[in-house]
Design brief:
heterodimer, A: mainly beta, seven-stranded mixed β-sheet, B: about 120 residues, mainly beta, six-stranded mixed β-sheet, four-stranded antiparallel β-sheet, 12 strands, globular
């Protein structure tokens, strides 16, 4: 596609449920990032993929969060046993190679609401 | 740890006027990149301008320019001839080489409203 696509755009779930958030990056981009943006805050780094592998997952808050990118394109962020504190906008971004100073292309995010 | 601080949560400017958004950062690295991203209500963040720390000349992109003061660790964004479409959240961001992977660290943002 022409840009980074994220689905769903909004997700409402109940505390304790499992959710999956999908990101479809720009075709050919090898670098993919997940960020979390809480209300009134800037985006906070979660995980970075280079191809199929997670090159840096230091931002994942705990083991309830997991992300995959099995074929080096689409990525899924998975959250188990959701908590109300997980409510936020989850942003995905991609860049051509993940190189120093590269521009990131962002999707429109998934607004996750945990009731 | 690297940090990015935006001390102006909200600002407003009259259409066609000039406004400056402030950003300071903290790092012990010598080379890095600084960015300004715009986030409209659609939530999709868009790059406005970027600056490499080794370059002394301030970056410009049409109506947008920066004032990069490396010694003071300051990176402000100037928007000239403000337009209604400039209304958005603006985030300052920092990228360095220290950790081995190049990830952005964002500030908390400044909400800019352009008034007709």
């Amino acid at each position: 596609g022409a840009g980074v696509s994220q689905t769903p755009s909004n997700k409402v779930t109940e505390k304790g449920k499992y959710v999956e958030l999908r990101c479809d990056p720009i075709s050919g981009h090898t670098a993919l990032y997940w960020y979390r943006q809480s209300l009134g805050q800037g985006p906070e780094f979660l995980i970075y993929f280079q191809g199929t592998g997670a090159a840096d997952d230091s931002g994942l808050p705990n083991d309830r969060f997991f992300a995959v990118r099995p074929e080096g394109s689409v990525s899924t962020l998975k959250i188990q046993r959701t908590e109300r504190g997980d409510s936020a906008v989850y942003l995905c971004a991609s860049s051509s190679t993940g190189g120093f100073g590269e521009k990131l292309f962002f999707g429109s995010g998934t607004q996750l609401s945990v009731l | 740890a690297q940090t990015v601080t935006q001390s102006q949560p909200e600002m407003s400017v009259q259409e066609a006027e000039t406004v400056t958004l402030s950003c300071t950062y903290d790092t012990s690295e010598n080379n890095y990149y600084l960015f300004w991203y715009k986030q409209p209500p659609s939530r999709q963040m868009i790059l406005v301008i970027r600056q490499e720390a080794y370059k002394q000349q301030n970056a410009t992109e049409n109506r947008f320019s920066v004032n990069f003061q490396k010694a003071a660790k300051s990176f402000s964004l100037k928007i000239s001839d403000s337009q209604l479409g400039d209304t958005a959240m603006y985030f300052c961001a920092f990228m360095n080489t220290g950790s081995g992977t190049y990830k952005y660290i964002f500030g908390t943002g400044t909400r800019l409203k352009v008034l007709a």
